[in-house]
Amino acid sequence: MFSMNILDSDAFLDMPQSAQNLYMHMAMRADDDGFIGNPKKIIRMIGAADDDYKLLVAKRFVLLFEGGLCVIKHWLIHNTIRKDRYEETVYKDEKRLLNIKENKAYTLGQPVGNQLATSGCHSIEENSIEQKSKGETSSPRLKDKENEDMWNAKSDDYDEGFVDLDGDGSLQEEKKTPTKKYPNAPVVRKLFQEIQGRDPASWKINKNQLQACENLYTERGIESIKKALLFHEEHKDKEYCPKISSPHDLDSKWIKLGEYKLSL
Fold first, then answer.
1. Is the CB of residue 61 less than 8 Å from the CB of residue 72?
2. Which of 100, 126, 155, 212 could make an SS bond with 248 (beta carbons 3.0 to 4.6 A apart)?
3. Looking at the domain assignment, is residue 179 inside a domain?
4. Distance CA 178, CA 186 (A)
5. Looking at the structure, do residues 210 and 167 belong to the same domain, yes or no?
6. What are the tens digits of pLDDT across the range 214-247?
7. How many domains does the chain contain in total?
8. How do residues 117-169 score in pLDDT, each as one tens digit?
9. Is the residue at 180 inside a domain?
10. Distance from C-alpha of 108 to C-alpha of 124, rounded to nearest angstrom
């Protein structure tokens, strides 16, 4: 049911127990392809916090689709289901948007080189996975590689602050030990000043804003933050665009801003 290569990784064990618990509950309730159609219900049912789910998405233990549907990234590493017991997911459109790497981890976007893909009806077993045909194209609902990283143009295996080494089962963080509690807050505040013209003195002492700056820097990366702020500045006056005027706003509404981008 679970691969210890994933559960024993530093990146997984460094998460709070509440996030680890949520991951396991979601994996136990996923369908035979690893899809979960009701993550919010599971969050409420076990008393988890939205931040636990956001952390799973940020660390890419969970891949997020438009409309709230999600899939366990390492599902095929955790599970091998016999052909006679396998029941294909009902989320076939989203399934077609997934590729399968040679190490059996899911990824979003077009296949690269000899990368494998889910295409049509297939067995979960490794030998039955077929390569994606050259003429097949991805649905327009997935733009800019979706929530794999909405604002980051780097490859889908890249995480600012994290190295996803699911090929050998080891997900390791490359964060540096901070010399003070919020060492990266000034960098994030400077971006807000440059793009939004805002950097109130209160942000320098408000713990919520300082922690949000640190979260953004370590979980999203400076380039992704900049792209998100520039996108918001361009669309801030449009209907349904989330209101963002502080680091805390951006941190808490990151997924909503990504979903809004997808809706355009």
1. yes
2. 212
3. no
4. 13
5. no
6. 899 988 899 999 999 999 999 999 988 999 999 9
7. 2
8. 333 333 333 333 233 333 444 443 443 344 444 454 333 333 333 334 333 43
9. no
10. 17
